[in-house]
Every structure is written in C-alpha cells, then in structure tokens.
TrEMBL record:
It comes from the Bacteria. The keyword Transmembrane does not apply. Keywords: Signal. GO terms for cellular component: outer membrane-bounded periplasmic space. InterPro entries: Curli_assmbl/transp-comp_CsgG. It holds the Pfam family CsgG. The keyword Signal applies. This is Curli production assembly/transport component CsgG. Residues 1-20 form the signal peptide. Gene3D superfamilies: ABC-type transport auxiliary lipoprotein component.
Length: 272
C-alpha cells in the first residue's frame, strides 16, 4: 500500500501499521527501533469553532484530520488514531460538548497514551480567518507552546499548511531535507484550496461518524467532483463508502438474527 494511502487512513483510525495500543504511523524501513521509541506521541483534537458561524461547526474535525495527515509525514512524530480518540472522548462523556479545554485535553491524553495534545480554534472576521493552536504536555498539564496564523478565508489550505509546520517546530523537531521534501509532497497531495469544499468534507465526516452514510455520501460528492486528484478527498470518500458497506452488512446480520429468534419463539414457545 502506498505510504500516502497508509497515512491518510490514519486520520480515520484505519492505518495498517500499529506501534502501540491506539497509536499508528507509517514506518520507513530505515527507521531503527530506538528511533521509533524516541518518537513523540501526539493527538490532534477537533478544533473549536469560534467564528460565530454555524456553517463552520464541523470544520474543526476536518482541520484536525488534515493536521494529522501532515504531521504523520514527520518520522519523529507518532500520531494517535482518530478512532481511538473518539472512544476516549465518549468514555469521558465529552460528546456533550464540542469544545476541548486544557483540563479535558489532559484527560484525553492520559486515557489515550499521548504525550502531547494539540487543541485549537478557528475564528473569523470577514474576510480574515485566524487559526490558533496550543500544545499541552500531558504529564504536567502545562501549555508548552501556542501558535496562530491569520489570513484570508480563501487561503485556508495555505494557513493550515503553515500551521502544521509551526507545530512541528514547536514540538522541538528539526526537519531534515528529506523530512521537508516528504512533508511538502504530503501537503500537496492533500491540496483542497476551496474553504467551502473543506467545510463540506468536514460535514461529511461528522455525518459518517453519526451513522448517516447516505447524507455523508451526498455531502462529499461535489467535493470529489471538484478535487478528483486530492488524495485526502479520495480517501475520505472511500472511507465513507467502506463504513457504509460495513454498516449495511451488520444491519443485515442483525436482521437475520432477529428473524431466527422470532422463528424459534414461534416454533418452540417458552414453557409455562
């Protein structure tokens, strides 16, 4: 499987290489076990929507997924699966709120095994957009770095690219020329220049997470048509299709089991 495909699957909790419970990343054959052990384990949580625009309520999920795929190109970073993070947030009942404060982020980090948690927010004052991030060291609960980027909304993709690179720097990771080239290639492969397309993609992810695969498919269809060469878009669409197929199989299986149980009860009613 191509490296780009493996890393993008990571954003949906399906990366094929597992380094530790709940953590994944693609590992080049040149990386030694000692280097793997020295990696910094990072979890990127859904960004908060501070724009005041309800249309952007799910944008933070897409933003986190894009940041995850970017950071996974860096050998010294080990990313936690989105699926694992979803399980943890359910465990602490975070689903009742869209927002992650520092205290909640630390809880997520401790339960998931992350060393560092990245939380962030998106704010906008037309035509400008600002994206803020905070890196929290789980062991101490301290905010070790903050960063932000500001620019026009239509430059959202470039803002996200810039912020991803700043996060790498803030994690005290020095990129080699090879790392730089790999990160450049990863970000270009994921390119989606249109903010509206990113919003639709993010909404589709949320619909799929809620089990509305039909709605998710309809929502992402125009994005696939507009960005047929974006690896990130293609993998997102394929993942929605795969999860929809799995859901259909499970429903069919449950339906068969229910039918069998009803038949058994009719044929052999419980004794009085």
């Amino acid at each position: 499987m191509p490296t780009a495909l493996r890393v993008l699957l990571l954003a949906f909790g399906l990366a094929p290489v597992s380094l530790a419970p709940g953590t994944t990343s693609s590992i080049p054959s040149s990386i030694t076990p000692a280097a793997v052990a020295a990696r910094k384990t990072v979890a990127v949580l859904t960004f908060d929507n501070n724009t005041g625009k309800s249309d952007y309520d799910h944008l933070g999920k897409g933003m986190a997924a894009m940041m995850t795929t970017d950071l996974a190109a860096v050998n010294d970073i080990q990313l936690l699966e989105r699926e694992r993070l979803a399980d943890v947030t359910k465990e602490i009942d975070q689903q009742r709120s869209r927002y992650f404060d520092s205290t909640t982020a630390v809880k997520v980090g401790r339960l998931s095994g992350a060393q560092y948690i990245v939380i962030g927010s998106i704010a906008a004052v037309d035509p400008q957009m600002r994206i803020d991030t905070r890196i929290i060291r789980v062991e101490t609960g301290a905010i070790v770095k903050t960063a932000n980027v500001t620019g026009k909304e239509e430059k959202f993709f470039d803002l996200q690219k810039k912020l991803a690179r700043q996060l790498v720097k803030d994690l005290d990771i020095a990129l080699t020329p090879e790392d730089e080239a790999r990160l450049d290639a990863r970000q270009e492969a994921n390119r989606v220049d249109d903010l509206d397309a990113v919003v639709k993609l993010s909404n589709a992810m949320s619909m799929a997470d809620a089990g509305d695969y039909g709605g998710a498919t309809l929502k992402i269809a125009p994005v696939v048509a507009k960005y047929p060469n974006s690896t990130f878009v293609k993998i997102t669409a394929d993942e929605i299709k795969k999860r929809a197929a799995q859901s259909s199989k499970e429903k069919a299986k449950n339906g068969i089991n229910t039918g069998i149980n009803k038949l058994i009860k009719r044929k052999w009613p419980p004794a009085n």
